[in-house]
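Moderator note: this is an archived Q&A kept for reference. The question asked for a predicted structure of one protein chain; the sequence and the answer are reproduced below.
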Amino acid sequence: MTLVEMGIPAVRSGRPSLDGRPETPFLVDRFGRTARDLRVSITEKCSLRCTYCMPEEGLPPIPKDELLTVEEIVRLVVLSVRELGIQEVRFTGGEPLLRRDLEQIIAGCHAQVPEVPLAITTNGVGLKHRARALAEAGLNRVNVSLDTVDRLGFARLTRRDRLESVFAGIRAARDAGLAPIKVNAVLMRETLAGAADLLQWCLDEQCELRFIEEMPLDADQEWARSNMVTAAELLDVLGTRFDLIEAGRADPSAPAEKWLVDGGPATVGIIATVTRKFCDTCDRTRLTADGMLRSCLFSDQEYDLRATLRSGASDDEIATLWRGAMWNKWAGHGIDAADFVPPERTMGAIGG
């Protein structure tokens, strides 16, 4: 099987150019942005098969010796905080709960950079059994992916009948002190009618709901701009049941625009990646599970930090490579452009 068939770019960049870069330790780029949010994928495996993310058979497994180890992940996280100005770290997948050593990863990072918030994005399956241990290890926040509260709809979308496990995981996380819990829902045509039910469930369970426009990152390559649900359509649907007042963004770099629900204080967020893109304020940098550094979710430009690590590189050498990668970050994804080409890696292979 080729790298492209695995959803992994066949060509990886060498040493990025630092020409014109200002003298600063931080992860600045040519467009005036500074990356402060690190996303670290730790596995390509997942316990669900969401149609907008995973093929039915799952992604081809990454060989164990190509995955970043606990020690390597901790080293890169600590370096990113101490040398590069990272202020928040989120662990993703695949499904991060499928790493049996997730608690070790969290504990190792928390022990060395306790001031930095650590979070995971999870589908919630099995979280019930690990939420307390993760909180005790140093986890601060949990985002749970949940697109519908209709059991049959959930089973169709995820190809698994595990909705009750997700509910149990959310409640266990809340009981473990990981509140407020954010729920992420991808806007899909087949679940749009139930969007208000999902919002009501989140209000009842004291979760912060954020809807996300579907992006062209599905493994089956069926995404079509003409079929995606837009933020405007969602607001029309929610508006038939709730009184929504636009509240904007509390943080200019935050991807979600917020609306007060029935006068507040509860809110619902919408991440309109496609129709209201926020590339000009993006503050993220990404590591894939196999140790590739990516400056953008939609770019196929990657730098091999795993090989750099394992060659015996110093922290200074790794930091220089990382700074160069972010200095060469492009302006934005250009989804609306006629010549837009989706990245070769899918969402499951990149990390959310």
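Archived answer notes: The domain at 27-350 is CATH 3.20.20.70 (TIM Barrel).
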